[in-house]
Specification:
Four Helix Bundle (Hemerythrin (Met), subunit A); Alpha-Beta Plaits; 2 domains; 12 helices; 56% helix
Length: 282
């Protein structure tokens, strides 16, 4: 137990230092992986000495950090503040050897950061819209077949409302894609979707984002929804439909906010999608 307490003190000090660096400089270097390893080590060490509440709390921290390092969650000010708060609670739990006041509240915040639907007024079973982008190895010779398998896996998780390339294009052999883009509607969480396709052969990168549709909303409401998701550490994409979007001052202000905050801009229309991909801050 003495060895565990000494190691935990060192690890928690290092955890706090890394989070402060993350807050100041962003997710550069190996900070996220180092934070994940600390949470993972504390979880295992606490379990070995019989401190189950400590191990379970560290496990929730580990899960959030795993989501960040795999790209399923985004680093921002709120996530950094939550990690610092969780580190303080874990330190108190280590010293006491059991639960402490405030533990449940922080656990709920960790859960909300992993599952934004619960904080957006719904249950974990509410319908979500996700944009899934899968980059394939450009040197692979069976990219069309891999893309087809990816579409079929995603079909098992929800309703595909948009796919580029479409299944019919792949079946006919019309295209050999380097990327698969899917808009998925269903109850599957981002983590589940990520894991369903990340393990496919010849997949280089998977990006899963929570989608906000601009159609039928004013730009202030679109920005509010994007910020709410981003505050929970979620990667955000806003879908714009040219037929329903007027490029006025409010739209330009929103596009600037999106670029400043790292929210992806997306359209199902090919020309609009290419234009949006070229937007840059002046």
């Amino acid at each position: 137990m003495r060895e565990f307490l000494n190691e935990a003190e060192e690890q928690l000090n290092e955890f706090e230092r890394l989070v402060l660096e993350l807050e100041e400089s962003g997710p550069g270097g190996d900070r996220i992986n180092s934070l994940f390893r600390i949470a993972h080590t504390l979880k295992g060490s606490a379990a070995c000495v019989g401190l189950k509440p400590v191990a379970e709390f560290a496990h929730r921290m580990e899960s959030l950090l795993d989501a960040v390092r795999s790209g399923r969650a985004q680093v921002n000010q709120n996530v950094c503040s939550l990690l610092l708060k969780a580190g303080d609670v874990l330190r108190a739990m280590v010293l006491k050897g059991e639960g402490v006041p405030g533990e449940n509240e922080v656990l709920q915040e960790l859960e909300s950061a992993l599952n934004p639907s619960a904080s957006l007024g719904g249950s974990t079973g509410e319908t979500l819209r996700l944009l899934v982008r899968v980059a394939l190895d450009s040197n692979a010779t069976m990219r069309a077949a891999r893309a087809y398998v990816i579409l079929k896996r995603l079909e098992e998780l929800g309703e595909i409302e948009f796919a580029k390339p479409a299944e019919t294009e792949l079946v006919r052999g019309d295209v050999v894609p380097d990327e698969v883009v899917v808009e998925l509607k269903g109850k599957a969480e981002g983590r589940e979707v990520y894991e369903a396709v990340a393990g496919c052969a010849e997949v280089k990168e998977v990006d899963v984002r929570h989608l906000v549709q601009a159609r039928g909303l004013n730009w202030e409401e679109v920005e509010r929804r994007c910020r709410e998701l981003a505050s929970l550490g979620k990667k955000v994409v806003c879908e714009l439909e040219p037929a329903y979007c007027r490029l006025d001052g409010a739209a330009i202000r929103f596009i600037r906010a999106a670029l400043e905050n790292g929210w992806m801009l997306f359209s199902k229309e090919e020309v609009a999608r290419r234009v949006l991909s070229r937007f840059r801050l002046a």
